[in-house]
Amino acid sequence: MKRHLISAADLTRDDAVLILDTAEEMARVADRPIKKLPTLRGRTVVNLFFEDSTRTRISFEAAEKRLSADVINFAAKGSSVSKGESLKDTAQTLEAMGVDAVVIRHGASGAPYRLATSGWIDAAVVNAGDGTHQHPTQSLLDAFTMRRRLVGRDAGLGRDLAGRRITIVGDILHSRVARSNVQLLHTLGAEVTLVAPPTLLPVGVGHWPCAVSYDLDAVLPKSDAVMMLRVQRERMNAAFFPTEREYSRRYGLDGDRMAKMPEHAIVMHPGPMVRGMEITAEVADSDRCTAVEQVAGGVHTRMAVLYLLLGGNEPAVTHARTEETK
Amino acid sequence: MSEPNKTLIRGAKVLGGEVRDVLIDGETVVEVGTGIEAGGASVVEAAGRILLPGLVDLHTHLREPGREDSETVLTGTRAAASGGYTAVFAMANTFPVADTAGVVEQVWRLGREHGYCDVRPIGAVTVGLEGRKLAELGAMHDSAAAVTVFSDDGRCVDDAVIMRRALEYVKAFGGVVAQHAQEPRLTEGAQMNEGVVSAELGLGGWPAVAEESIIARDVLLAEHVGSRVHICHLSTAGSVAIVRWAKSRGIDVTAEVTPHHLLLTDELVRTYDPVYKVNPPLRTERDVTALREALADGTIDIVATDHAPHPHEDKDCEWAAAAMGMVGLETALSVVQHTMVDTGLLTWEGVADRMSFAPARIGRAEGHGRPVSAGEPANLTLLDPAYRGTVDPAGFASRSRNTPYEGRELPGRVTHTFLRGRATLMDGKLA
Ligand SMILES: [Zn+2]
Fold first, then answer.
1. What is the CATH number of the domain that holds B260?
2. B375 inside domain
3. Which domain range does residue B284 map to?
4. C-alpha of B221 from chain center
5. What is the ipTM of this complex?
6. Which GO biological-process labels does this protein carry (chain B) (predicted)?
C-alpha cells in the first residue's frame, strides 16, 4: 500500500482485496462485547472537514475510536476556496501538533492530493471526498458490501469481484463516488455500466474502463448490483434535465423496474437517499436495498484503511487476539 | 543603465542569417557590414550569437497600479529586458482598471521613468471591464499614452452589440480590439481544459468551443463592420481553423499564441500543481501541434507572453483556490526556440517576424519591429542559441516566480538587450 489513500487508482487488486479482508476481520471485532482494538493507541488522527458531511465524519470517527486513536475533529468551514491560504495554514498547524494521519474532506478536487504532495505536512492523508474527484473509502465500502452479498461473507475472503456486473445510475458527472467506483470495481474485475442522461456524463467517459448506456431498462436484467446515485434538484435548474418527473420516469428505480433485475441482484445507495426522485420508498425499504449495511461496512472498511496505513505490517487479527488475552 | 554611446556588436548572425558587424551610435544603428572598425566604440564579441530586432510583447500584465506585490512597471520591464524585449503592451486589468486617460497616462509615465523597455498601455474596452458600457476609447487614444490597443483581457467582451460597437468605434483612429475569447456561460466553474483529464480529475471543464464560438462570432462581426480584430492567446486546434478560414475570406483578423500553449498540455494538471493553472487552460497534444503549425504558416501572427505574475501565496494552495496565470517574459524566447526553431518549424527570421515585426505592426509600436539596418532605432536583442541550462526562477527579474518551467532544461539565452542604443541587459545582467 502507498503511504496515502487519495484515489481508488492508488490501489492494486491485491491492496484492495487486503483491505476488504481486513475489513472482515474488523467486522468480527464489532461482534464482540469489547469492540476496541489497541492498534492505534498513542496515534493522533485528525478529521479535517472543509465540507459538511456528518455521515462520513461519524463513520471515520467511529473507526478511529475503535482502533484506540486519539481523535481530533476539525471543521474548517467554508473559507478555503475564497481565501486560498487556509488549507496550507491548517496543514501547518496540524504538522506542528504532530498528527499521524489526516482524514480530509474538501469541496475542491485535488485538495487531498495537494495536501499529501506539497510538503506542507508529513502525516498520512486519507481522502474522505474531494470535490467531484474521488471518494475512495466510499467505493471500498461499496465493494465490501457487494462482495458480502454477491460472493459471500466467508466465501469472499481473498476474492475479488471478477465477472460481477455492476450498474451505476444517475449524476455521474458530478459524482466522486462514481469516479472512485469505476476505478476500484474495474481493479477488482467487475464489469461496470454507467447509466445517465448524456448531460450527466463527463466528456471523457468513453475512455473510462466501463460501458455507458442511456437506457436503464435495457441494463437492469443484466445487473448483479444497481447503485443509485443521488440527483440534486438544483441540476434541473441548470438544464441538466427538463423536470424531476421526467428524470424519475427515465432514470428512477421503482418497484416495476426492480422486478426486471435478477433475483439475487441488490440495490445500493451511498446515501442520503431522497425518496421519490431517484429511488422510490418501496425500493429503498425492500430487503434488496443495502443502504444500511453500507453504513455499517463503512466503519469496518475505514478501520481497515487506517490500520493498514498506520498500523504496520502484521495482520490485524494478531492485535485482536492480543487484546482478547489481556 | 549605461549612457548611450558607441557600441560595436561584432560578428553576430543578423536575424540568424549573414554574419555582420553592427555599429550603434547614440540611439541609432549607423552601420551594418563586415570588418567595421571599433574606433572608440565598446565592443560586444558576438560570434555564434543571433541578433534580432528588439522583441515586442503585445500582451503583458504589469499589475501596477493595484497589485504591486505581484509586479510593478519597474520589475516587469526589468523582466522584459531580461527576456530580450524592448517594448511591452500592458494589459488594462489593473486596480483601478486602465479605462480612462488618467490611468493609461500613469502607466505610460512609469514606463518612461524606469526605462528598461517602452511601455504601451492597453486601454479597457468597457468601463471597469464590466462589459456594459464603452470606456472612453478616444480619450485614451488622444492621451499622452496614445493607446492603440483595447482589451478587457481577463474577461471576454461577450455582449455582441458592445463588441460590434467597439470594433466600429476604434476605426476612427486606427485602433484594434484584442479579444479574450471565453464564452462566460460555457466556462462557469471551469478549472482546466474539458476532456479526458478533467473528467478523471473531477475539475470543472473548460470546453474548446467556449473559445471557438466567440472567435467565430468576432471574425464575422469584424467582417460585417469592416473592422480589424485581434484574438488573444489562441489555445485550440478549432480556433486555428476558424482564424485560417477568416483569413482566407479576407477578414482583417490577427491572432496570438503564448509560449506555454506551444509546449505544455493538460496532462500536467494531473499534478494538481497550480503553477499549471492558466487562462485559457493548457489543452491537448493535438492542440499544441495545431498551434505550432499555425504559427509556422502565419495563421497565427505573433507570440505574446500573457506574462501573468502572481505572488507565491496565490499559487501555494489547492488548485481551485489558486490564481490563474504564469510569468513568461524571461522564458519566452527559449520556449519559442525549443518548440519552433529547434523543431525546424520556424527560422530565426520567422521568430523576428512573430515576436517583433508583427506585434509592433499590430500594436503600432513606433520605432520597434524595425529591420536591423543603418538609420533604424537601435532596439536590438542578442541571444546565444547554443546555451543549455535549467530554468531557475530564483534568478528572475520579475517580482513573481510562478513559472511552469522551474528545473526544466530550455535552450538559448538572451545575453544583451539594447533600447535605443543603451544596453538594458549586458552579458545576461540587467544594466
Ligand atoms: Zn486573457
1. 3.20.20.140
2. no
3. 54-363
4. 25
5. 0.85
6. 'de novo' UMP biosynthetic process; purine nucleobase catabolic process
pLDDT above 50 for A205: yes
* Residue A135 known to bind ligand: yes
Alpha-carbon distance values, A182 to A45, A191, B198 (Å): 28, 9, 16
What is the interface size between A and B, counted as CB pairs within 8 Å? Answer: 89
- Cα(B153) to ligand 1 centroid in Å equals 5
Q: Is B118 a catalytic residue?
A: no
**Residue B93 marked in a binding site:** yes
Amino acid at B75: T
Asked, for residue B13, whether it belongs to a domain, the answer is no
Given the residues B306, B314, B353, B384, select the one marked as catalytic. Answer: B306
Mean pLDDT confidence for A201-209: 94
How many domains does one find in chain B?
1
Q: Which residue has the cell 498513542?
A: A42
The verdict on residue B16 lying in a domain is no
What's residue A272's pLDDT?
84
Q: What is the pTM of this model?
A: 0.91
Count of beta carbons in the 10 Å neighbourhood of residue B225: 16
Q: Residues of A at the B interface (Cβ-Cβ below 8 Å)?
A: 80-85, 87-88, 106-111, 113-115, 117-118, 130-134, 176, 179, 202-205, 207-208
B319–A132 C-beta distance less than 8 A:
no
Model confidence pLDDT, tens digit, residues B90-109? 999 999 999 999 999 999 99
Q: Is residue B377 in some structural domain?
A: no
Residue with cell 549607423: B30
Distance CA B395, CA B372 (A): 30
Q: Do B318 and A202 touch (CB under 8 A)?
A: no
B303 contacts B295 by C-beta, under 8 angstroms: yes
The answer on pLDDT for A2 being more than 90 is no
Instruction: Give A42-96 pLDDT, tens digit per residue.
Output: 999 999 999 889 999 999 999 999 999 999 998 876 544 445 557 888 888 888 9
